Amino acid sequence: MSFDVPDDLQYLESHEWIDPETGRVGISDFAQDELGDVVFVELPGVGDDLEAGGEFGVVESIKAVSDIYAPVSGEVTAVNEDLADQPELVNEDPFGDGWLVELDFDDADLEDTLDADEYHDQIA
Amino acid sequence: MEHYDQARYGPAGEDTNEPLLSEKDQTTVEVDSSLPDDLTRDEVELPSPEEPELARHYVRLSQQNYGVDSGPYPLGSCTMKYNPRFTEEAAALPDAAVHPDRSEDSLQGTLELLGDLQDYLGRIGGMDAVTLQPPAGAAGEFTGILVAEAYHEANDEGHRDEVIVPDAAHGTNFASAALGGYDVVEIPSGDDGRVDLEALEAALGENTAALMLTNPNTLGLFERDIETIAEMVHDAGGLLYYDGANLNALLGRARPGDMGFDIMHFNVHKTFATPHGGGGPGAGPVGVTDELADFLPDPHVREGDAGDYELYTPEHSVGKVHGFQGNWPVLVKAFAYIDRLGDDGLADASAKAVLNANYLAEQLDYEIPLGPFHHEFVASAGDQDAADVAKRMLDYGVHPPTTKWPELVDEALMTEPTEVETKDNLDDLADAFNAVAAEDDETLESAPNRTTARRIDQTTAARNPRLSWHDLE
After folding, report:
1. How many CB pairs under 8 A join A and B?
2. All domains of chain B in start order, with CATH
3. Taking the domains of chain A in order of start, what are their residue ranges?
4. Chain B residue closest to A85 (CA)?
5. Does domain A10-107 have CATH number 2.40.40.10?
6. pLDDT tens string B95-110
7. Which of A110, B73, B102, B190 is most buried by its number of CB atoms within 10 A?
8. Chain B residues with CB inside 8 Å of A60's CB?
9. Tens digit of pLDDT for each residue in B433-449?
């Protein structure tokens, strides 16, 4: 089985992605597949400060409850409100409509993240 | 006659999913009420089926139920013991129905039973004092945490704000510590499924209030290093808390108090065969060492010098955790069970629980990665999905084990047959396990096929919960 790993994103070993252009954060295609049907997503509020590597929310599926980790430090500028009623978006479109939060962050922090090739090797 | 048939009353039709309550007869009732109009209604919506239909409805429901009275119920970690009828009879005796607010001199029989039960549990657990007040196991954990907190406060050690819990512990341990206001420090288990002493050493410190532990642990494995663990926790100034969920393995052979535990709760529904209750009244007595006895809940029962019994408030009591002396009928059942079995009977029950678990484990084709086991074991479904295995086992007419927990074992099938099953029952159970083990994924994924309700759509249920008949369209 092969999973989508878009080239223009950066990744964490713990399967979160961040878009360096927009600051959007989500979980990977691999992660949503491992979790199975997502039934609930708990997210921080706009204005909350996240710390790189820190837990910032929870994704609950019928199989497991998993913490989600911030790829970089930064302030939450937006959260995906649609997930409250449609947690399935995380499964259906993990890199699109299933995004979790948007962060205002410092580009220098991206150094500690994986590029698409490195992440692809990890899940291969 | 398809899905969810059990909730339906009346002939199948468009209203197949309608519950009994929506079969309503709308009768106008005149009421004289001083309540505002918007808080009252004229129509009382009550169902009014004929008696035969009503009787059939409930008999059908009872026939569709599966319980410990129907057959083996090997739900690991839950200890689904058969509930002997004589304990029900004892709790239903007219003499047992005494209002707890009566004067102490007219309550002597009640207090004597409670006092004796305190002593029984103290002897069984190796504890110096026992409160019967907590209304459930988890409430017992919370009570124990309150006692630990009060003890540290009294010793000017109130800065201790951490409770250590192994990752494989029951979820209630984490919750009870958090509810008591503590930060929960989770430590990973070692490769052998037991407490990792290095991880424990690293977690212990001047902020440690307690370590919560189950022994045998949630994998059914005995913590062989328990004496070392107790020494480490005590050297750090912390208390050792025993989660009594697995006490069924030890009765008459080993006592938490002798292992160095300071506080413990008893799950009387697991160890002493009181009903699980389905959320109804329960009991979770808590035992402590002498040092902690003054912190127990109020009131406590003691025997006076003249042989009479009295209620009193322990000197530094944490206060009330439930009404009166706890859930009396449940305590009567636990008392009756212990009293009838006696020392030899309790030790025999534990021995058979351990024997049954080990015999069943030997019969299974599934891999069992750890051991040796006590009263329960954890098999791995391997390449199969443990939840599918459980659903398929329903088709063979048996209750499945607990699945996917503890997470230390992949696709865990956590199995506890309890002491009551005969060898024939265990063989039948093993046959069901092994039949499922030999089946393909397609068969498993379509199961169950022989039950009243077919496979539940868990995803939709979780995403769009309908928690009341009001939510049915």
Report:
1. 15
2. 5-65 (no CATH), 85-340 (3.40.640.10), 342-462 (3.90.1150.10)
3. 10-107
4. B463
5. no
6. 888 888 899 999 999 9
7. B73
8. 462
9. 999 999 999 999 999 99
